[in-house]
């Protein structure tokens, strides 16, 4: 599961994302990303680029990583991406 939070989201507050993360304790994997300085609508181009980058690379990790064909992390984030805070929590024992 991928959870993406906008740092300055006034529609979906930070505690809601925490509740989602806590509710997904049985998920095989939970990936959390926060787009710094972004609002809910991703009004800035930099925020939209960051979101697209997060989504594409997460999908790639889920699809190719499961097959052992993942690109190196140094080639994954384009220069246009804005600042991103991230954490991943694999399911224990997975």
Structure notes:
By secondary structure, the chain is an alpha+beta fold. It has one domain. Helices cover 33% and strands 20% of the residues. The chain contains two helices and three strands, in the order βαβαβ. A three-stranded mixed β-sheet has the order 1-2-3, with helices on both faces. Helix 1 links the parallel strand 1 (2-6) and strand 2. The chain is flat, with a radius of gyration of 14 Å. Residues 74-80 have low confidence and may be disordered. Keywords: Hydrolase. Residues 73-94 are annotated as: Disordered. One of its GO terms (molecular function) is hydrolase activity. This is Alpha/beta hydrolase fold protein. Residues 85-94 have a biased composition (Polar residues).
Secondary structure layout:
Blueprint: E1 2-6, H1 14-23, E2 29-35, H2 45-65, E3 84-90
Parallel strand pairs: 1-2
Antiparallel strand pairs: 2-3
Keywords: Hydrolase
Region (Disordered): 73-94
Protein name: Alpha/beta hydrolase fold protein
């Amino acid at each position: 599961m991928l959870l993406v939070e906008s740092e300055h989201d006034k529609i979906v507050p930070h505690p809601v994302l925490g509740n989602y993360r806590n509710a997904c304790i049985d998920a095989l994997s939970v990936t959390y990303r926060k787009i710094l300085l972004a609002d809910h609508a991703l009004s800035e181009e930099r925020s939209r680029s960051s979101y697209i980058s997060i989504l594409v690379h997460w999908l790639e990790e889920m699809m190719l990583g499961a097959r052992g064909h993942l690109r190196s992390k140094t080639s994954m984030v384009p220069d246009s991406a804005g600042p991103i805070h991230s954490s991943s929590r694999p399911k224990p024992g997975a």
